[in-house]
Amino acid sequence: MSQLSDTGRQQTTAARRTVPYETPLPEDTLRRVSNLITLAFGILNGLIGLRFLLKLMASNPANPFAVLIDALTFPFLWMFQGLTRTPSFEGITVEFFDLIAIAVYYLLGWIIVRLMWILFAKRQ
Q: What is the pTM of this model?
């Protein structure tokens, strides 16, 4: 492609090329993926919060629902166990590490969503 310069001579200009590895996602797709990640971390935080409340109310640890909640949340809480004291009195257990895990997973979900928008949003 050629253009006339201010001196009247023709100059060739290279056509703009897009970088092949730069593929920004459409905003709709990015919003949907962000919402799915937010939902997943919200469900996880809800389950951990439910576990905290069940322990706080001295629920029956042999109950199938309590067993299910413990089984679902254990893989996400094992690294937090032993972080703080776990006071208990007459069956009531206060697991402060559950509250710390909720804060950490909320922050982790927020960071992942923000990074996705920074890395994959179309630039204007």
A: 0.77
